[in-house]
Amino acid sequence: MDVRNAQEARDFATNVREDYANELYDLHGVALRIRRAARLGHLSVQIHQDRPIDLRKTGAAAYLIETLLMAGYEAEWVEVRKHEHGPRGDPPREYLYEELLVQWHVRLHAGDQAKT
Asked: Domain residue spans in the chain?
């Protein structure tokens, strides 16, 4: 990678984000997380990231969200703040990014509500 070529750096970062999203948003892995959370009585699970990077525009995220919505789940991005201490005593850095929240709570349809 050459410092004189910003497009090359952007492409490299995009590829890294796509690879990470493919690992994180693997359908089988997400299904296991949902099952574990549901067995504990939860109605949602947040897919926590080890890296504070933006995965919202990745193909893996889009595919997972589409699959979840078709199966009756809800999916939304929630803001996360992460503080990390820098190396060699550098001041801490704050990262702001979004993680995927998957929900399966019951919603009442307008026709199901009691009429008053």
From this structure: 6-112
